[in-house]
């Protein structure tokens, strides 16, 4: 055995130059990935301007109804309001309206958040439509008198029907009492007295 020499050939030898080169390559790749590429930009999408909804938002159809909620139910059957466009569930009506009118939902529908600028002609046409609509809903005195007369006739008809039903009930009651009294009087006669002491007739 040699004096004081230790055998360390089993230890791994690191090539510092090789690992330094690998680190530089990795840094260069990360810098390239962070740099914005002008060629790889997504194309600009021209979206339609905002427009009026052509449907009524249904907020009251499930109001006051009880529903069993499970974790495995599909989104459309979970508690809350389901948006089929964005495939999400919103818990209450106020947030549902905010979602429907919000940027994310409008983009999913293909609309931008900008409204189309109206021309003078469009505004004038809109005023004409509103004027026609308001003039057609105005009542004249004759319309009001006709309405009142119809309501009075309907009320009289209801009262007459009520009176007839009342009369029919009285007749039925009288027939039942007549049949019931005959049976009671026969029973009372066999027992030896005039009646059971009831004041009803």
SSE blueprint:
Blueprint: H1 16-34, E1 48-50, E2 81-83, E3 88-90, H2 93-100, H3 103-108, E4 111-115, H4 120-137, H5 141-191
Parallel strand pairs: 1-4
Antiparallel strand pairs: 2-3
Describe the overall structure.
The chain has 201 residues and is mainly alpha-helical. The protein contains 5 helices and 4 strands; from the N terminus they run αβββααβαα. It has a two-stranded parallel sheet with strand order 1-4. Strands 2-3 form a two-stranded antiparallel ribbon. The protein is elongated and about 145 Å long.
Mean pLDDT: 81
Radius of gyration: 44 Å
- Helical content (DSSP H or I, runs of 4+): 40-55%
Total beta-strand segments: 4
Report, as a whole number of angstroms, the end-to-end distance.
139 Å
Describe the structure concisely for a colleague:
With 201 residues, the chain is mostly helical. Helices cover 51% and strands 7% of the residues.
Q: What brief labels describe this structure?
A:
single chain; 201 residues; mainly alpha; two-stranded parallel ribbon; two-stranded antiparallel ribbon; 51% helix; elongated
């Amino acid at each position: 055995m040699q004096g004081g020499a230790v055998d360390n050939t089993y230890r791994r030898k690191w090539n510092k130059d090789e690992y330094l080169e690998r680190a530089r390559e990795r840094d260069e790749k990360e810098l390239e990935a962070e740099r914005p590429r002008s060629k790889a930009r997504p194309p600009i999408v021209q979206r339609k301007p905002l427009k009026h909804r052509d449907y009524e938002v249904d907020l009251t159809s499930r109001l006051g109804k009880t529903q069993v909620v499970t974790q495995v139910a599909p989104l459309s059957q979970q508690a809350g309001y389901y948006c089929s466009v964005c495939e999400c569930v919103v818990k209450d009506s106020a947030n549902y309206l905010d979602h429907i009118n919000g940027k994310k939902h409008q983009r999913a529908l293909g609309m931008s958040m900008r409204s189309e600028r109206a021309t003078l002609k469009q505004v004038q046409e809109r005023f004409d439509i509103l004027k026609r609509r308001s003039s057609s809903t105005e009542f004249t005195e004759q319309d009001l008198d006709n309405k009142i007369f119809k309501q009075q006739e309907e009320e009289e008809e209801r009262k007459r029907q009520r009176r007839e039903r009342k009369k029919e009930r009285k007749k039925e009651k009288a027939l039942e009492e007549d049949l019931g009294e005959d049976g009671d009087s026969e029973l009372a006669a066999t027992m030896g007295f005039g009646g059971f002491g009831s004041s009803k007739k």
